[in-house]
Amino acid sequence: MSTLAEAAPAESGFSETELTYRDAINAALDDEMAADDSVILMGEDVTSDGGVFKTNAGLPEKYGRRVINTPICENGFMGVALGMSVSGLRPVVEIMFADFLPTAGDAIVNQLPKYRYMSGGQFAVPVTVRVVSGGTGRFGTQHSATGESWYMAQPGLRVVTASSPGSAYELLRAAIRENNPVLFHEHKGLYGRKGLVRRGAVAELGRAAVLREGSDVTILATLLMVERSLAAAELLAADGIDAEVIDLRWVRPLDLDTVSASVRRTGRLLIAEEQWHEGGWGASVISQLAQDGMPWRAAPRAVSLPHDVLIPYSPPLEDAVLPSAERIAEVARAQVGP
Amino acid sequence: MSTLAEAAPAESGFSETELTYRDAINAALDDEMAADDSVILMGEDVTSDGGVFKTNAGLPEKYGRRVINTPICENGFMGVALGMSVSGLRPVVEIMFADFLPTAGDAIVNQLPKYRYMSGGQFAVPVTVRVVSGGTGRFGTQHSATGESWYMAQPGLRVVTASSPGSAYELLRAAIRENNPVLFHEHKGLYGRKGLVRRGAVAELGRAAVLREGSDVTILATLLMVERSLAAAELLAADGIDAEVIDLRWVRPLDLDTVSASVRRTGRLLIAEEQWHEGGWGASVISQLAQDGMPWRAAPRAVSLPHDVLIPYSPPLEDAVLPSAERIAEVARAQVGP
Amino acid sequence: MAEDAVGADRRVRWYRQMVEIRLFEDKVQELFMGGLIQGTTHLCQGQEAVSVGAIAAMRPRDVQTNTYRGHGEALALGMAPETAFAELMGRVAGCSGGVGGSMHLIDTKKGNIGANAIVGAGLPIAVGAAMAFKLRDEPRVALSFFGDGATNIGTFHEALNMASVWNAPVVFLITNNLYGEYSPLRTTTPIDDLARRADPYGMPGVVVDGQDVDAVHAAVSEAVERARGGGGPSLLEMKTYRYRGHSRSDPAKYRPEGELDFWKSRDPIDLLGAKLKAEGKLNDPDQTALREQAQADIDAAAERAAESPYPTLEETRGYVYAG
Amino acid sequence: MAEDAVGADRRVRWYRQMVEIRLFEDKVQELFMGGLIQGTTHLCQGQEAVSVGAIAAMRPRDVQTNTYRGHGEALALGMAPETAFAELMGRVAGCSGGVGGSMHLIDTKKGNIGANAIVGAGLPIAVGAAMAFKLRDEPRVALSFFGDGATNIGTFHEALNMASVWNAPVVFLITNNLYGEYSPLRTTTPIDDLARRADPYGMPGVVVDGQDVDAVHAAVSEAVERARGGGGPSLLEMKTYRYRGHSRSDPAKYRPEGELDFWKSRDPIDLLGAKLKAEGKLNDPDQTALREQAQADIDAAAERAAESPYPTLEETRGYVYAG
Ligand SMILES: Cc1ncc(C[n+]2csc(CCOP(=O)(O)OP(=O)(O)O)c2C)c(N)n1
Ligand SMILES: Cc1ncc(C[n+]2csc(CCOP(=O)(O)OP(=O)(O)O)c2C)c(N)n1
Ligand SMILES: [Mg+2]
Ligand SMILES: [Mg+2]
After folding, report:
1. ipTM value
2. Calpha distance C242→D3 (Å, rounded)
């Protein structure tokens, strides 16, 4: 099923169109670059033939030197983006694979989030980092990471994830308009997905989206796990289990209000995450609800990457380690019980 | 009070001596370098005058070229350590401030933990990374991090923390003997602390230590927060509250058995952490216990760095943001109730 | 293998290795299109002389690190095509048990201590291996293969600086194929001869004709033996070209008209073939026969590899942590 | 201030600035020992000619990034000593409201867009500022100050490469004081003249006498105006020396006998003082009077700074996120 958010009637000024996730990102970049001359796009191979994942098609022709091809040096060009941002530009930086974010580790941990603070608030740092994340691509151990939780603890940063064409468009526009550094996570397994896009809309910062309402269990997910959770909800419906599915969207700040309100109704929380559970947003959400004294009807659960396992290349093995709709449904069934 | 672990009667072959935390680290390095020629020490300024925090005094004179002074290039020399480790050496790498770990982000996320896996198990990667972490030094935003949870989600790594001279000695020896990459966290606020060291002892991998037994609440901490938790326990004792204090020690793997057994007795868990709660080991522990259906007598709580605040230089302000014994005791009192 | 003088049979063996690599890569492309190999592949047709000439300069206990475009080095180091195909197909018979894939053809027993999917990551690792040799006073050398694009990332700089200040027995080998992914060298790098990047580390930098396996072998041998003798590291730039796109099904539209043809006119296999023929060491019929035999071997290896099963999760658990 | 020709009064102003920096740093050491300044300090006594001569080459809307050892640049850019002292004491009157401390004397209104505590981090930031100027066709230039030790970290390489390939209006300025923390340059770096590190980026590299403020000003002015004119980036190496240890109370035992005395014999303040005297522009009594006045100003500034309150957590919350 398509998402409630996207199925909602287009507000005035929005034109609804069906786009692929890839083209929705392209449209968000195009609309922001058209609206504001200070927005620029930079990264490795971004100018050639739409870029590696073809998200940038047409932009170099349209915006000329505002689309900048960089040498291979993530930490360096992330620092360049910071320098641009404190000099009046709003750079959007493409990181070809989330696995390369740690190569820019100093810029992400010590520079972008702290630059304003160290100066006593003299700067704003409007940098958007587009991070291509996730598995299913058979890219193996060093090219399949979802870095969505890596930097979630860092004050000064915002972290957001896009699970559909509609949310990718609205969230990327919100990220580019934000006056603080934002890590915007895309999933390489979703580029071909089609969905409704409210051209012109800009998402609200820090708001999760309830995509499917239900009364028995709340499934909380991001990125590719959102569509798998929606598929799981369909499987559960067949068993008479009514699942609510929430797209967390923002990892920092966490929208605990939306999640908490849902879990107070359903009494059950199931995290569906394409990451290891330790140190992730799923564990953080469960911890916060537990500290708030959530009255669970059943213990919360998480479907995550298997503990102490890395992402393999071997195709059947990669499929086996990534959480599936079936696995999500299975755990939800156990939570709801007979 | 001194710790139970350290107060325990020295087993045969161990000689108990009182050392500073700094000298305990020096002793562990010395003992391992003496025991195994393949152990080497490298890092910035490690050869001059004992190194920046004086932990390496005497080692260059004693071990000659096995103590290597590096240029300033964390990612580079971390890669060098990896190359050494797959060529028969057991390097110990000193990272002068935890804040510089992200500078070596690629080596830590994509190389050390994945190198064995990518090869189908052809290599072992016995690298120990000594990370100088923590606040109280008035070093400001870019020099006060505790990176203990940054990489806790990464399969292939081990992460350990040292809260006292005794544990620093035994845990560092265990880290150096481990055949996988270990991030060993020291706290710069503890170097001058004195404590009993069981010279010759080697800690067990993945075991937390119960430092004080109690029946009303379990306080779980690492690094500097351990002594502050023990101090809080004394304050609580004065109020007739009997707190158990556990030094988590290993962030990866987490010793959930020890923590869980304690909380099943006390019914209350209080996390004392010098880090932001999101994405940290505290949240992960609470999440795991909640998933196991822990029957809480009171909701778990955490005393952490304040949300959306960075570490300031200004001395009174730094004191205000770091969790204090008083604050820990205060929250424990609220948990236990009247 | 590495000790004997550079004689006829040895160069005939190089010829055979280059043909094997060429046909292996062509087969990989075919299997990728057919779906038996998934994810990504980075092929090295056109660069065979670099892999073969440089690897031939190594002695038995020397080691090297290479990259995701490392099939040529892996095969030149003696990995059986069947083992390599099995890895690319994700099968247990692969060198990494199928979990690594195309970007990680590794065999530490053959001195292949790393094939890295992170640009620039292999250089410091090679320096580390070289330092281990040096600290143990072993007469061994480490090589590091990487591309032109990798000379722009920090690890290149850090590795060369450390190698020089420590006088580590390591040789840095740039396979300059003129492109980093879709970007021509000139758009990311302000100079043309990357060997120029050796001077600020006080080490020799040499430009080499990467199409001529004899030239590659001579230059790398000199650098390797200098390093072995305590003469320190050096930086070698191999001028070459990749016939295929960067990866997968990249059509390489970014290449100027005629560039590919120009480089094919100096094909490394043809160049050595012509020399061997002129020297009367391998005439046309021999070359044809050799090629046909190699093709048959490659096809058979791919078929046998496809019979190997996929690994189970249990079989791979031990790859994460060493005991 | 930056436009007028290099005339007498201007060089007298430089002299005064150098004296102010010297006395400021001496006072910082005293306050650190007394506990009014905590944590760490990195002082620049001996390097004053580099800060003053280079900053004087900037025009009003130009910018620069520097480091934890940036007090000299901050003061030369016109930060009031009182503001700087207040920051070092962690008070609200400090340039960063007291949360930054000694390593972060920043004032964007004066073109001081960053003082970084991470070695090498300031270079790409300066390139970014320069690219913003270039993309908007503004005739502005960015400078980046960093140390000799910073030339060994990846960001140095990445920044210079990007600056050159993009022809960014930026000037890289190495303050080569012969040590990176406790390590002599030679133990971490295989060459002596770091200006040599410009060539692989195809940019000019110049060695400059960092004790002679006139030489520094001339060299930096030329590089800055070349960059402004579209001539691209350059790398300047200032040979100088820090009189104090690396930081805090480092006794600097690692320095050879007599090295400090040698450099003090070419003290930058004395050198300019002698010239101004010879030129009849500032005689001995004037110099003494100027120094006494500066000392009085510094002492008064420190006292006023100490009267500023410490910030409250609430006052600093807004420093984390911009609205
Ligand atoms: C740190 C990092 N950044 C980006 C990439 C993506 N990437 C893979 S190959 C490549 C181009 C490398 O070019 P070059 O070094 O010339 O090697 P070649 O592919 O030509 O053999 C890039 C950018 C990567 N793997 N690692
Ligand atoms: C990435 C990083 N590594 C290490 C340090 C610790 N550190 C601070 S200053 C310094 C020496 C820098 O030397 P140099 O660049 O010559 O500057 P100087 O201190 O001499 O002005 C080091 C290693 C750091 N701040 N950042
Ligand atoms: Mg290339
Ligand atoms: Mg220096």
Report:
1. 0.97
2. 53
Q: Residue C62: what pLDDT?
A: 98
Say if CB B99 and CB A109 are below 8 A apart.
yes
Residue D9 DSSP SS3: helix
| DSSP 8-state symbol, C237 | E
Is B269 an 8 Å CB contact of chain A? no
Nearest CA to ligand 1 atom 13: C180
Separation of alpha carbons A106 and B72, rounded Å: 14
* Range of weakest confidence among B1-10, B26-35, C152-161: B1-10
Q: What is the 3-state secondary structure (H, E, C) of C166-216?
A: CCCCEEEEEEECCEECCEEHHHHCCCCCHHHHHHHHCCCEEEEECCCHHHH
* Strand-by-strand arrangement of the A269-272 sheet: A209-212, A243-247, A217-221, A269-272, A301-303
CA B321 to each of CA B307, B308, D96: distance values in angstroms, whole numbers, following the listed order: 10, 11, 18
Token pair 């028995």 is found at A216
Tokens representing B306 are 């304040």
Give chain C positions within 8 Å (CB) of B78. 124
| Residue B250 token pair | 């290993």
Q: Which residue has the tokens 């660069």?
A: C47
Question: b vs e for B235-251, b when ≥16 Cβ sit within 10 Å of the residue's Cβ?
Answer: bbeeeebbbbbbbbbbb
pLDDT above 80 for D105: yes
With a CB-CB cutoff of 8 Å, which residues 108-127 of chain C face chain B?
108, 113-116, 118, 121, 123-127
Q: How far is the CA of A150 from the centre of ligand 3 (A)?
A: 30
Q: Calculate helix-pair angle for A74-85, D122-135, nearest 10 degrees.
A: 60
The number of angstroms, rounded, from the C-alpha of C184 to the middle of its chain's C-alpha atoms is: 21
Measure CA A74 to chain center.
20
Give D310's DSSP letter: P
- Full-model pTM: 0.97
DSSP character at residue B62: H
Tokens representing residue A277 in the block: 């559970």
- Which atom, in ligand 2's list, is nearest to the CA of D44? 21
> What residues contact residue D7 under an 8 Å CB cut-off, 6+ apart?
none
Determine the Cα–Cα distance for residues D202 and C149; give it in Å rounded to an integer: 16
User: Of C299, C313, C317, C310, nearest to C23 (Cα)?
Assistant: C299
pLDDT along chain C (323 residues), means of 10: 57 97 98 97 98 98 98 98 98 98 98 98 98 98 98 98 98 98 96 98 98 98 98 98 94 95 98 97 96 98 98 97 97
Quote the pLDDT of residue A13: 75
Tens of pLDDT along B127-138?
999 999 999 999
C154–B76 CB contact, under 8 Å: yes
DSSP string, C112-141: EEEEESSTTTHHHHHHHHHHHHHHTT----
CB distance C54 to C75 below 8 Å: no
Asked whether the beta carbons of residue B310 and residue A152 sit closer than 8 angstroms, the reply is no
Euclidean distance between CA atoms A117 and C45, whole angstroms: 51
Kindly state the tokens that stand for D103: 């390593």
Provide the pLDDT for residue B338.
82
What is the DSSP code string of C65-104? EEETT-HHHHHHTT--HHHHHHHHTT-TTSTTTTSS-TT-
Tokens of C274: 């012509």
Alpha helix (H) residue ranges in D45-140 = 48-55, 71-76, 81-88, 122-135
Interatomic CA distance for residues D117 and B258, integer angstroms: 40
Cα gap B282→B100, rounded to integer Å: 23
Phi and psi at residue A296, in whole multiples of 5°?
Answer: -65, 140
Which backbone phi and psi does A125 adopt, to 5 degrees? -125, 75
- D168 neighbors C165 (Cβ within 8 angstroms): no
